[in-house]
Design goal:
The structure is a homodimer of 453-residue chains. Chain A has 453 residues and is an alpha/beta fold. The first copy, chain A, has a domain at 66-107 and 231-442: 3-Layer(aba) Sandwich (Rossmann fold). Helices cover 41% and strands 16% of the residues of chain A. Chain A has 18 helices and 15 strands. The first copy, chain A, has helices at residues 40-43, 49-56, 66-72, 84-90, 111-123, 137-148, 159-164, 166-174, 188-196, 204-217, 230-249, 265-279, 296-299, 342-349, 360-374, 382-399, 417-424, 435-442; strands at residues 4-5, 15-17, 61-63, 80-82, 95-100, 128-133, 152-158, 178-182, 221-223, 256-260, 285-291, 301-306, 315-320, 354-358, 404-409. In chain A, the strands form four sheets. A seven-stranded mixed β-sheet of chain A has the order 1-4-5-15-10-11-14, with helices on both faces. In chain A, helix 12 links the parallel strand 10 and strand 11 (285-291). Chain A is globular, with a radius of gyration of 21 Å. Chain A starts with a strand and ends in an 11-residue tail after the last helix. Chain A binds chain B through residues 1-4, 6, 8-9, 70, 73-75, 85, 103-107, 144, 147-148, 166-168, 170-171, 173-176, 368, 371-377, 414-415, 417-418, 420-421, 424, and chain B through 1-4, 6, 8-9, 70, 73-75, 85, 103-105, 107, 144, 147-148, 166-168, 170-171, 173-176, 368, 371-377, 414-415, 417-418, 420-421, 424.
Chain lengths: 453, 453
């Protein structure tokens, strides 16, 4: 039984797919504090021109430079798997396929954009990139990419993670990055926090402030973000493009596509290339899967809000739980985001993208079921997609429908085994929709009016 | 630039290569305590008939059952890489290729034999497998394989590792294995040790005793070993067979093949299929790379010795440092073995296989160089092969020889980041050949005489 569908290196996509070209309505622009759209010049302090252009572009196909493809070849094209054993375990007539993005050296889909961002920054003469990281997935990806393009990478890692999760930090150092526990002594933002609270554990918000300060204050330094923005989702579309080609090779086309959804790059990466067909009339469901504890698309509002927790970024039109919503400490750290990509949000608002929230324990159960049948131990983020697929495959077992299901196995769980430990020890819990918390944080939405006309 | 050379699933080898068919002299047989060769019946208490037959077989090609191939397809054929970036970094005219065995779900080459052993045990009606594990690489592989063939797996994990390296334990549990800290209360061996020393940290020797006791004492239970034995090396030859096909696809043939060598399955796996050509007159160097701190092939003696530290196993004719030699606590746990496979040992004794010892710090330097150029963070065992290849590639840079070098990247370092941490912190040291220690332990070699005639 054929298990893996492999593309040759020479069949790796040559262009990224820009979903903005096929959206029925142009995406709502980011707004400044004055309520006016933010122009490219405002972004130039921290991003190179090519990425700003991609952020705004309406071109359907954007060429992938050969230098980027050359690095991507270290792990791409990634294999598409037919999950024969999982199907048998579920006794389902559904066909289950998954794209294995865990094969990248950093262990997730994140390097797809890290490599592109490092390249364009090097082309713009930049010598140094800064970023923030929580558990370290994104920091690792940028460290790897920076190393391969000869850029210094400075990662501000939330202090509590820096000490509690040392292994991703070691990995960043192996790839040559400078990793600072945030708050650090090397930025004003860091020093200000430390003066107030020398024992501060840090937060993603503080780490962002430090990374942006370093980038804004130095001519040769830029900032890199791992999700949410249009150009980041663009770079991930290579996942869905490859998957389409691979399914074609075995004469299949999905009825439904699933991916975890935090900031949106995982979902956009696999789903957008299929959206192109949907926009052209094809029937296909694109399902963004999120945790019930951080139900941005399923329980949030579609409104302008800050991209970060503190209110430093431009305002983005998106589904949000309120920028100061603090989700519970679930183990899928990559899905603990109060907002969502503007592109995914708008498509969901227009009814073109579906969303589903799944509780934590169900996701770990699905992850273990997957590991025991397919071998690979999935990252806690990826188990969200698996849980949704398992639900659908069981439904097919009841109805007899032989649906074709595709999902993005966005990463492996090698650095998340402590979470599996807690699951086996019965220490995990589910979090109901924290109704009051969301209502409270939604009160703090910025008051902006913006008329598209 | 083509980076990966991929075989199609349908081109995965259908037979294992048995090096015994091409050895100039038949391998020396294992001996019992009475100095007489051990017959198949002595092994039947803990191994299934098919594996005992493979252990003794002189057939050149042994078919791989379809059920095994079907599981191997979850990650095989593994990719062969051309290390373009490493070559550039070394400014060498050498061509460097590596086989990436880190792509298996357990992260190393070990599942190649775990899957075969689980299959043959299931076919023999066995319900349960026992084994020992130190850091957990082998335990993980057997847990995965047992799960896929519906066997219960009991892993006795050295207690100090059980507590200090919890993540491989969690992985075994994710794959459904029962993991016991050894010494445990569930065996006589364990209880005896605990009665003497309730705080015992355990050792690999004790864990072996517990696993073998469980297997010998129960009709439905067998024991599985991760290296050293002939059938284990046989199952690994799929690595070298694939590599040969892949090199053929790009018109290459190696001048030298390198692999780490502890018990010998890593080295035998990639090197033996090339030995077939060497036996037929082809010029090729096969280099087993070991740590200077445990220099079995380079500083040991070729003699009959016990396979384990305590003296439970039959006597094996092999290079040994003495069965009670205790190597220093280097980070390449898989290479801390006092002996070596009888097959590798005999080929080395006959001058057909070369050996090279490299010091610890050089191996980590090579690992970091590799990670920064090729992306993948290698396991400390694998860095031994990399260090040897780096030496050779530098030599080629001096002489201008465009040699073709192949090595086995046997595993990733995701569970070894604490070792990289210590390397970066300058806390690692090299161990010189511990002369007196070896001379001391060699005094304890069992006195056996066995005349091949």
């Amino acid at each position: 039984m054929k298990t893996k569908i492999l593309l040759k290196e020479e069949d790796m996509p040559t262009h990224w797919y820009n979903v903005m070209a096929d959206m029925p309505n142009p995406p709502a622009p980011p707004l400044g504090p004055d309520g006016k759209p933010v122009g490219p010049e405002a972004l130039a302090a921290i991003f190179p021109p090519a990425l700003i252009e991609q952020e705004m572009s309406a071109e359907r196909w954007i060429p992938i430079p050969e230098d980027i493809r050359d690095v991507l070849r270290l792990w791409r094209p990634s294999p598409l798997y037919r999950a024969h054993r999982l199907e048998q375990a579920l006794n389902t007539p559904a066909k289950i396929f998954y794209k294995n993005e865990a094969v990248s050296p950093a262990g997730s889909h994140k390097p797809n954009t890290a490599v592109a961002q490092a390249y364009y920054n090097r082309e713009a003469g930049i010598k140094r990139l800064t970023t923030e990281t929580g558990a370290g997935q994104w920091g690792c990806s940028l460290a790897l990419a920076g190393q391969l393009f000869g850029l210094e990478v400075r990662v501000f890692m939330v202090k509590v993670s820096y000490h509690q999760k040392p292994y991703r930090r070691s990995m960043m150092q192996t790839w040559g990055a400078n990793v600072f526990a945030s708050p650090s002594e090397i930025t004003n933002s860091g020093r200000t926090i430390l003066a107030r609270d020398p024992e501060s554990d840090g937060s993603l918000g503080i780490a962002i402030s430090e990374a942006v300060e370093e980038a804004a204050g130095r001519e040769d330094t830029n900032y890199a973000l791992g999700s949410v923005l249009n150009h980041v989702l663009l770079h991930q579309t290579i996942i869905g493009e490859e998957a389409k080609k691979q399914l074609e090779m075995v004469g299949e086309y999905p009825d439904m596509v699933f991916a975890p959804c935090g900031g949106g790059s995982n979902f956009g990466g696999i789903a957008f290339p299929f959206f192109a067909d949907k926009a052209a009339g094809k029937e296909i469901a694109l399902v963004a899967v999120e945790p019930t504890s951080c139900p941005t698309l399923t329980k949030g509002v579609y409104a302008y809000d800050f991209g970060d927790a503190i209110g430093l970024t431009p305002l983005l039109k998106m589904y949000t739980l309120g920028h100061d919503f603090m989700p519970p400490g679930i183990h899928a750290g990559g899905l603990r985001y109060h907002g969502d990509s503007a592109l995914v949000s708008q498509l969901h608002y227009e009814g073109l993208v579906d969303a589903l929230a799944v509780p934590q324990i169900e996701t770990f159960e699905a992850g273990v079921l997957f590991a025991r049948n397919e071998g690979i131990v999935p990252a806690p983020e990826s188990t969200h997609a698996i849980a949704a697929v398992v639900r659908e495959a069981k439904r097919c077992a009841e109805t007899g429908e032989p649906k074709t299901l595709l999902f993005n196995l966005s990463g492996h769980g090698h650095f998340d085994m402590a979470s599996y430990d807690r699951f086996f020890a019965g220490e995990l819990r589910d979090y109901d929709y924290p109704d009051e918390a969301i209502q409270e944080s939604l009160k703090h939405l910025p008051k902006v009016k913006f008329d598209m006309g």
